[in-house]
Amino acid sequence: MTLSSEEDQGRRPSVRPQSLMFSFLGIYVLGRGTGVYSGSIIDVFARVGVSEEAVRSTLARMVKRNLLVRHRHGRKVYFALTPHAEEVLQDGHRRIWETGAVNRDWDGSWTLVGFSLPDSRRRERHDLRSLLTWEGFGPLQSGLWIAPGEKDAVAILAPLGLDGHVTVLKAEAAKPTEAADLVRKAFDTSAIADGYRAFLACWDTGSPSPSAPDDLARQLMLHTDWLQLVRQDPHLPAGQLPQDWPAIRAEKCFRSLARKYEPVARRIAEEVLDVLDLS
């Protein structure tokens, strides 16, 4: 789906158009009260090798999922964010720019969520697990998930309406259990570290994404790769991670490149994007 040379293909995983769309919307639409003409979105995505058909399909799916809304202006169709999309993108913005790659403020507590749903509610069980993963929880054992620190479980679980099937507790590890044991059992730290190492292999080089035509394309791919990482990172306590934890170096790399690409990328976007003021 995305533009890549043979060298890029060896270093970057395939990225779905919807993931790129979230990055695009978060950078150029979030908080602006605007809609963007579909034709100009297609022009931007052509720079990262996404076809017109894939862009139109992605936009249609996001409308159906209540993430985008269409606005007609003359013969053109503009796409704007829904309140739900604003919330999702604001959460992504916080994870990228505020939360940080490592949890240095852990107070030693854990939030526990236990649940039991029958097979007849398999879809809801899947949605609950997906939501818990997104919020930094890991499965300690069957039906019991944990996350470091105090989580706002009421706000997290509210969209699913499963209060009667869920138990929430706040606890601390007690002998013979150690915090390191909980991290090891509930979270695949090797896979998390491998994700950051793959990011570094792609971006911490002399010439990241050499096949990209310009800094706008590089910006979208960089932000997409990084957001996918931080979405999957449960933000584990720094004291329970190896001293050479690769997330620290990866975050420095991301921030440095993001600052580097931003001025030219924004200038290109201003030239390419057809924007409708909806405020």
Structure, briefly:
InterPro entries: PaaX-like_central, PaaX-like_N, PaaX_C, PaaX_trns_reg, WH-like_DNA-bd_sf, WH_DNA-bd_sf. With 279 residues, the chain is of the alpha+beta class.
Describe what you observe in this structure:
InterPro entries: PaaX-like_central, PaaX-like_N, PaaX_C, PaaX_trns_reg, WH-like_DNA-bd_sf, WH_DNA-bd_sf. It comes from Streptomyces ovatisporus. This is PaaX family transcriptional regulator C-terminal domain-containing protein. The chain is of the alpha+beta class. The chain folds into 2 domains: 206 residues, Winged helix-like DNA-binding domain superfamily/Winged helix DNA-binding domain (Arc Repressor Mutant, subunit A), CATH 1.10.10; 64 residues, Alpha-Beta Plaits, CATH 3.30.70. It has a 4-stranded antiparallel β-sheet. A 4-stranded antiparallel β-sheet has the order 5-6-4-7, with helices on one face. A hairpin with a 2-residue loop joins strand 2 and strand 3. Helix 2 crosses helix 10 and helix 10 crosses helix 11. The radius of gyration is 20 Å and the shape is globular. The N terminus is likely disordered.
